[in-house]
Amino acid sequence: MEQESLARSIAQHPLVAGMSDEHVDFLSGCVRNARLDEGQFLFREGQRADELYLIRSGKLALEIHDGARGTIVAETVGGGDALGWSTLFPPYRWELDARGVHFAHLFAIDGACLRAKLEADHDFGYAFTRRLLNEVHSRLQRARLQALDVYRARP
Amino acid sequence: MTVSSAPDPMLPEPLRIARAKRETHGVFTFELDVSARGGFPFLPGQFNMLYPFGAGESAISISSDPHQPDRLEHTIRAVGAVTRAIERLGRGDVVGVRGPFGSAWPIREAEGRDLVVIAGGIGLAPLRPVVYHALRRREAFGKVALLYGTRTPDDILYRKEIERWRGRLDVEVEVTVDTAGSDWRGNTGVVTKLISRAAFDPGRAFAMICGPEIMMRFCARELERLGVSLDRIWITMERNMRCGTGLCGHCQFGPSFVCKDGPVYRYDRVQDLLLVREV
After folding, report:
1. Which is deepest, A49, A67, B8, B196, by most CB within 10 Å?
2. Domain A2-148 in CATH: superfamily?
3. Domain parsing of chain A, residue ranges
């Protein structure tokens, strides 16, 4: 019953919305609800990446620490975003910090469980990976624009 | 609103600076005294040629409220010789003004639809009159969203005004910066990220974008991806405007002149030109 309710909730998230009921049910076996308080770290750079997160609400800052410049916010993410691709690829280590800016609700997807299901059912694997690829594509486009520093004053 | 130009568009009219305000580092706003001429009517999106005597002219968008023609404001970024000369002026100094010139944002055409205003950096200045208009005639539009991206938290223009707009329940105002330290509690990331999160119906939305050309292209593509028809996306162009009347040819942009046929263009009419490197 609780699993059914979780599956219904996950199905509302943009990354999952539109997937078949069968695939959502399959995925929900790897999912738990999570929360993150303001100021709390969801993960830190270098730690083992063992969960992928679908953010339901709230705001998190993805931060990179540079000795000379201090902490730099690379991007903030919020409701509707997915976070944690490092959990899908070796060596399964976080490449930045994720800190709560505003209290957040998340779905935490167990990385090992997800990887096993992606391998076990390639139809599910394709459907899920395609959605994740779309997210990565958008993130890459944004990163390119950000790197161009378009608002810098140029005579 | 009615619009009238000075009798001779090539003759600068001396106007005194009534107020000067520093907005951010290198960006300032001048209010010009137009009381003696009975106001300065203009349409949102139009620009003036400002002339600090002896230093040359520069095309600057009008950034004040079109419903208050007794106040004429320009927000200027000091980046070249002319704008730096303007920056050195202060209250009581006189600047030459020609205008208003150019095409306007299609605010009447947008009525009855959701309005999405997307600004990048100093690009908020030419869109500020649109925001003023939309807020004054709020009932004429569906949802109204202002999405503003800039470089850092210190570069946010019209900060107090934005806070006031954010306080309204009938307009969505989102601000993001490209880079920030950990003390910044707002959004970090590019302005395109705000588009997909904004509450508007792509099927009935009208979008107006102003900022660097690359930023406008990325925004237009994101709007198109969401389903906004390209003929309902408008952008404003910047080229080397000199005469303001389409005679000198300095601002030629393909078959058009930005000072006369622009600076506001419908995106589908110029999108191919934006990709021509020689234009």
Report:
1. A49
2. Jelly Rolls (2.60.120.10)
3. 2-148
